[in-house]
Target: ABC transmembrane type-1 domain-containing protein
Amino acid sequence: MIFVVMFLVLPTMHIVIGAFQTRDGAFTLQNILDLNSGTIPSSYWISVKISVASAALGCVIGFGMAAAVVFGAVPRWFKAPLLTFSGVASNFAGVPLAFAFLATFGPVGLVTVLLRNNFGIVLQRDLGFSILSFWGLTITYLFFQIPLMILIITPALEGLRREWREAAEVLGATGLQYWRMVALPILFPSILGTFALLFANAFGAVATAIALTGSSLNIVPIQLYAQIRGDVLGNPHLGYAMAFGMIVVTAIANIAYIWLRVRAERWLK
Model:
């Protein structure tokens, strides 16, 4: 409890209170109103799009990998290493992740140089891909989004009872009909809840975005950093207001995840 209060509750309260204060400590709503000014709305919109894209791709790819493991499309021995790697990769973010992708897909990264020297393909010129762009950051986020999806959806897939499929087959259902009418409706709350969690996970990622793109991509964490870093052009209390907005968005996503998770567990008991 002491740890939670010191490193979660007190910093959050400091941000919330600071969002409604002036530099002199007086109460104001101007910081909240200023969220609709300048490039701040567009930064929120870009952050939302990156979060939605990485969450959607993470759900689709992670669901396919988890289903392949649970239902035996890959060898059984593959399950334990996959889950172990997912547990590590889902928490691998920040500066190390940004450096790994820069060393792989950056201007002089391993894959970039390999394609240019051996196949004459320049990623940015021929494919329009840059690691410092929207899709570059989205692909980087997938490194921890896909493993997180695998960890969360695997128990839900294992909770599908064999009797349900057998009953559907006895009643004449095909495999496609079983998934469309039985399995997916049961799994839908889990999938949608995990999507909400992945969205919040990407929306709140700060260190990876700053270390990877710097100021080249206009997203909320980078604008927030510019406001609170303390130079003469910054406005720390506007930064608190931006952080407060991020807290609200991630809180809504996490509440949706918890509510949908509770609904999903009713079927799995």
Notes: The chain is about 75% helix and 0% strand. Residues 194 and 257 are 6 Å apart (CA to CA).
